[in-house]
Amino acid sequence: MPDPPQATPVEPSLPAGLQAAVEWHLAGDLDGAEAAYRGWIASHGDHAVACCNLGAIALRRERFDEALAHLERSLALD
Q1: Could you write out the DSSP letters of every residue in 30-78?
Q2: Among the four 11, 19, 41, 72, which has the fewest Cβ within 10 Å?
């Protein structure tokens, strides 16, 4: 996976790998962001931001059941 776009951290308290996923997401690279969020969850466990943002990507791609599951998980973690 390529390096994320260089930007000022959106949320400085996020771990670096998750911050990179958010930067890809904000840059419009939904495929890269989705892969990074899923990778983060696979290696570190659920995280509210990762789940929420996966839900947002699924919603944008009209995968509504998946979006709902991710968003509900995010709320449960927060």
Answers
A1: HHHHHHHHHHHHHHH---HHHHHHHHHHHHHTT-HHHHHHHHHHHHHH-
A2: 11
